[in-house]
Structures are given as C-alpha cells and as structure tokens.
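Thread: Modeling a multi-component assembly for a lab meeting

Hi all, long-time lurker, first post. My supervisor asked me to bring a structural picture of a complex we are working on to next week's group meeting, and I have zero experience with this. I have the sequence lines for every component (940 residues in total). Could someone generate the structure of the whole assembly? Inputs are pasted exactly as I received them:
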Amino acid sequence: MGVSPGRPVNTDFSSPDEAQLAAAICPVNAILAQGKSALVDPGKCVHCLRCRWGIPTPMNWDAGYEWARPSAGNGEGATFPASFSKSLHIMVVDAGDCGACLHEVKQLNNPLYNMHRLGFFFTATPRAADLLLVVGPVSENMRGALQKSWEAMPSTRRVMAVGSCAISGGVFGRSFMCAGGVGSVLPVNFEVPGNPPPPLAILHGLLMATGRKPATKSEPVAEGRS
Amino acid sequence: MNTVGLALVLLFLVCAAGVVLGIVVPARRVPPLVAWAGSAVAVLALWSSGAVLISGNEFSHPLWTIPSVGTLSILMDRVSAFFLLIAAVVILASSIFSATYMKRYAGRYSLAAFNAWYLVLCASIVWILIESDVFGFLLAWEAMSLSSYLLVNFEHQHQGTRQAGYLMLAMGEAGFIAVELVLVLLAVRAGSWQFSELKGAAIGLRPAILWVVFLLSFFGFGVKAGLVPVNAWLPRAHPAAPANVSAILSGVILNLGIYGIIRVDFQLVPVSTVGTGLVMLLTGTVSALVGILYATTESDLKGVLAHSSIENMGIVTLGLGASVIFVALGLPLLSGMALIAAFYHMLNHSFYKSLLFLGAGSVDEHAGTRDLDRLGGLMRVMPWTAGAFLVGALAISAVPPFNGFVSEWLTLQTLLRGVVIQSTPLRLVFALCGATLALTAALAVTCFVKAFAIGFLGLPRSEGAANAVEAHGTAIAPMALLAVLCIVLGVLPTYLIPALNRGLKPLIRRGSAQVLVPPFFTANAENGQLPAAFLHDFHNLGAQSGRTLLPGRGLVVLLRGREANPVVFAMSPAYALVALAILLLAGWFVVTRLTCGRSVVRRPLWAGGIPRLLPQMTYTATGFSNPVRVVFQAIFQPHITEDTRQTVAVHFRTAIHRQREEIHVVDRVFLRPVDAAVRRIAGFLAGMHNGRLNAYVTYALAFLLLMLLMFRAA
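Re: Modeling a multi-component assembly
Sure thing. I ran the full set together rather than chain by chain. Output:
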C-alpha cells in the first residue's frame, strides 16, 4: 500500500441501499448514509478496509496522504506566523496512545522522513515548545499532565491532535476513564486524521500548521471509483 | 586591684552563685538562669579583656602560695585578652540562645546539672586564659576537659552520645598527659611553676629533646584543636552535644587548643626551625582537606559543621606553620602576615561556626531532625533562622563581603608569597599547600551550598520540617548578633588588621599591619607616606574615597612589591560591597526598565507533568555530594556489601540490599592501629595478673630491688 494505507472518501452509490450497507458495515460509525451518498467522517475512520472489501460495491478510495485539516472550532486563522516557518519546536504528549500513532510520529525523526530538513524539531519541555502534538484519546491519568503541559507553554502555542483517537476518541470513545479526544480538554487547532496517520500525513499537518501547505479542501464527492 | 581584677572576681562569683542558684530554683527557671548567668559572665569577660586590649596594660596578680607547689598567679596579657574576647562573644551568644533552647530537655534531663557544668565550663575557660603558672593551667585545663565532657554527655540516654563522650574524654586525657609531661618537665628544669620563668628553661636543650617537646605539645593541644590525626573525637562529640554547647566547643574550646600551641610553642619554647614549621603546615593542610571532604559528604547538619571545624582549624594551623617557617627563614614581615591571617581566621571561625551551630540547634529544635535528607523548605517557615544561617554559610564558604573571605584570602596570599623562599622543595611545599587550600575553599562552597540549599530551600522532606515554626526571639537575637559581626568583620578588615597587630604585639612583628594596610586616608602628595606615583594611581582607582568621612588608615588591604611589580596583591571588601550594591541596583533598574511594558503570566513549575512534585523526587544531600564521594574514593575507601536474594531464577533477582560502610580515614589510618596496638600490649601485660600471691610478692620484691639499684646509681 505504499506510504499510505489510504482511506475511504465520500461516495455516491447507485442506490440508497448500497449507501446504507456501507454505513452499516463501518465498525466506528464513520460512514453516514444520506440518500444515495455515503459521507465519511475521516476523524473517526480506522482504515479497517471493510467498506472496501466487505461490501459488494466498495467505497471510493483515497490513496494519498494530504489529510491534515484545521479543527472545526479553533482552526480558523490558527496558522503559525511566518517567523515559525523555519523553526518549529514540537512537544509530543502521549495521552493514552496505543503506540501506533506514537510510532508514526517517531518515524518523522528518521532519515527517510527527516523532518529537521523542514525546520521541525522535537523538544522534551513545554517551556521551549510551540506546538503541542497529542496522540491518544486522553485517558484520565494523562488529563492532568496534558493540561499542565499546555499551561507551561509560552504564548503563540497551538495544539495538534494526531490520529482518530485524539480527534474523536476513536475506538475508545468517551468513558469514565477516557475524555474521548483532545478537544474536550484543550482547544485543538489542527487535526491529522488516520489510525494511525502515516508520517507523511503528519508532515503535511506540520507544513499546514506553519502555513507552508494549504489545508485539504473538503473532498468533492467522487463520481467513479478510484 | 583595678577594674579588670574586679571584673574577674565578679565573674567567678557569678559562676559560683549561678551554680548554687541552679540547684535551688525550680527546673523551669533554670534556662533563664543559664542565660542570665552566662551573659553576665560573658559581659564581665568582655569588659576585662576589652580593658586590657584597649589600654594595652597587662593585668597580673599573684593569687596564693601553696607549699611545695609554689605561687599561683594570673596574668592577662594581650594574647589572653584576645582569646578571652572571642570566647566572651561566643559565650554571650550561646547563653542567650540557651534561654529557650534548654526548655526542650525539661523533665528528661537534669537542667540544674547542665547549669552547673555550663557555668563551670565558662569559668574554667576564663581561668585557662588568664592562668600564668603550670599548676593552675593544668588544673584549669582539666576542669575544662571534664566539664565539656559532662556537657557533651548531657543527652546520656542516647548510646551514641555516651560513646562520643567517652572517646572525647579518653583522647582529651591522652592529649592532656602529653601536655602535662612537657610542662611539668620544663617546670622542673626551670625550678618554677611560673610561665614567665619557664621561658628560659628550654635554652640549652638538645634539638632532639626540643623536637619531642614540640611534638608532644603540638599534638597534645592539637587534640583539643581538632587537628589530624588526633581529632577522631571531634566529629562524634560536637554533633552529640546540645547546640549551645556545640557552639562553645567549636567557637571557644578549639581556640583553646590553638591558645595552648601559641603559649607553649610560640612563647615558652619558641619553635624556630623549618622542620617544626613544616609539621604544622602539613598537619594544617591535611586537616583542612580531610575535614572539608568529610563535611561535604556528611548529611547530618551538625556533623557537617563539626567536620568543617576541623577544616577551619586546619587553615589556622596552616597559617601558624607558615609563620614559623617564615621566621626560621628570616622573613619576619611574611611571618607577621601569616599570623594575622591565622588569628583573623580563628576569630572568624569562632563567630560563624557558633552562628551555624546555633542555627542548626534551632532547626533541630523546631523541625525535630538534623538529617539534611529529612529537612527542606525551612526558609518559608523559619525565615530569620534561615537568613542568619545563610550569612554564616556564605561567610564560611569564603564569599565576599563576608568575613571568611578576608582571612582565607589572606592565608592563601601569604602561602603564595612562598615564592620568595630560596629553597625549591620548600617553595613546592608552599605551592602545594596553597593549591590544597584553594581546593578546600572550593569544597567548602559545595559543602555549604548543600547544607543551606538542601536544608532550607525546596520542599519539606518530613512532617517535622513542614510543620516547623520560627524560633523564639531569644534564639534569633544571638544569631543576628553573630551574623552582623560576620558582615562587619568581612567589610572592615582594614580596621581589624591593625587592631589584631596591636593586640598580638608580643607575637607579631609590629610592621605587618602597616604594610598590609597602606595609609591611603592619611597620605597625600606632600607628606611622603606613600610614593607619589603609586598614590596617584590608586587615587584614580578610588582608594582614597571616603577619607573625609571615615577614620583609620584606609579601606584597601594591599601588599606593595618592587618597582617592576608595584602591587603584589590587593583587595577591598568595603569598596567591593559598594560596587556590588551599585551594580545590583543598576542591574535591577535596567531589568525593570526593559520589562516594564511586558505582561507576566505565572504558572506552576514544569515538573514533567507529574500530578504533584513530591519531596522524594528532589535532590538529596547524599545525592548532591555524591560526585565528591566518587572523585575522592581513594580517601573515603568505602566498603560496599551487596546482598542479593534470588527467588525464582538467576536472572530474576527480587531483593538487592546494598550497604555502604565508611570508616573515617583518621580512624582507619591512626586510631584503629593505635587501638589495636594498645589492646595487644594490654593483653600481653594482663598475663601478669595470674592471681597467685607468690607472683605478686615477687613483683613487689623486684620493684624494690630496682628502686634500690636506681638510687644507688644516683
């Protein structure tokens, strides 16, 4: 599958039944049937491929990786000022992550993705961080630490939620031990959907946060199959 | 009899009355009694010593004549008065401190006994310092030894205290016997008990005998002064005593050891060879290094102070040794400088160490522990105690503008003047001792950064430290007094150095202070007290600022060299203080101006996102000093035992018990071998006591024969 697992995109089926079928087979309720169309919420999708292989008429498929988007609430105008475009320091907080997203984040440092060439750096302390990169659905035990990290950051600070768990709670959802996404704890500015998102998607998110790549436009409903 | 005599008579009367009153009054009235009686003694001692020092007239008085012993007499010359002055200040502080501190012992220990021993100790200290005959001196010395032992042993319910007390008593008596041997032999040779007549007794002694006299007296008094290798008792006894007694032990009784060395080795039998000076110099250097190494790794607050006393006495002895060597080499000016430095340091040490001991006692009283690993955060709850302790810690770390800096700097500079010595090996020894002294000073900073930062800053590590309250006013007042003295002595050395020189006239060549403190305030271009070009340069540097406001010679300590190198060394804590204040104010002004338009957001300290920063997570005293422990492993030679219990398999160890044992280097190298040898000899001699009557009769007969033979030969 190359550098990206791909993900389903909004699809117009020939009949409402097919759309219902696609919505029914999604284990995380990421697909909503609307007439003949099946609309995907990328913030929930876990790339289980059931909507691709498990139904007679598969969903349209996006094999790319430019998935990052501004968050619905705080994303507008949250792009970093130009002075950050050559040096952005990122603090990663593992807020109850299963390890997958963290592993992908870790890949950014390796020679293949090499985020340093783009002016992105990891830092271990929030005092020096500009961007708080959160993975995981925010378990109760990490809620305090996450808030403290946020409070300890100097101003011109942004939050990026990476992975469907961080965006919407993912397969963990909301429970007494889980906040169900970073948005319920901190004001999220950027989201990188995917479960986990490939490193290139995270890089895209970082470039978008610094204003060096445009945000992904809401995809048009595809006519045919990809 | 003049006022000095009257003051001394009153002093001893106050002591006697205090002892009697202590037995009569109820126990709760005893702590104030200790404070009042002790303060009265101190004030009277201050008065009498001050009168002698200011007027310069010695006070002497014959007491009474004992048949077959001779006349007992007292003499307070300037040296005595100087030591008495230091003792009086320390006794004053620790007596006032006793008023509330001693209440913690009410009900558990006999306060009347404490009162009695405390006043006897004060009286015997004064007595030692004014005594001028061998008999009375030894008697007073013994009274001081016994009463200080009884005070150290005051908390006798602790086994550690009892052991420390016994060791102190045993080593003190061993030193006493050595001193007694020297003094009595000299007295017999002179045919008089008077110190003044003993001075001639040493003339004509063979060098080997002089060496024996020197070694016995130096190390005999060295026991009380805490010099390596006869100081094994000190780090045990000083922490074991109540804090006010610790202050006197460190601030006065260590000085008495130096006093004995001065009296015997500088006045009665003046040592004037390079060899004896080297023994003193090296003993001092080793004491300083060993003392501060163990102080740095110790985590008991009073233990830190006790080990550091060894260091400071080492520095004093080092100065004395350097002075002897300079005299022997015909360099009286440098010798005077070394003596001034040594006495200055002794004076400083008495003040800051008693201040620190009182502070440690205050901490012990209110936080319930002296273990640095269980203290912390006291700055918030005990700000005054902490402030006074901070002044003491800065002073002992030799940080300007506090007093420790002046004397350590002078000692170091004097040692560095060893370059003028002709012989290369001696020059090397001076350089090495100077380097060791510098290392000692650096370790002292580490040590007291640890003592203050771990003990008073950060988070409280125990319930007691968290719930501590500020000490009572009567405990803070003496600490404040000593802290002010520490600052005054640190800022105004140019007034003290001439005073020291005047006070110690019999010992110091007159010119040393004149050379060390150039008369910048009185000199001008006309009167020629200083060369015109030199004066001009220093006038431009500001050395004459304040001449219209202040009396005295100047505010700069300076040693002038030859043409090519006009200034050998120079410093001025007073000007430095002014400059420091101006720089700090200017810095503060600039920073506030630059940041006035900036909004500040205050957030909790970032500690890795943990829920709460626990005291267990902070740096401990043990952790802080571990680098020193590792670097100097060759000296510490720790014995580490590791006990691993395996339950499941070889690779799954469940319990590891790691124990580290250290035997003090002095114990390892000196005390234990001596102890083993004494035991062996005693074991061998014990064979004589076989319980058979015939054997004992034989011993008596043999002894009789021996005596007959000896007297026949005579």
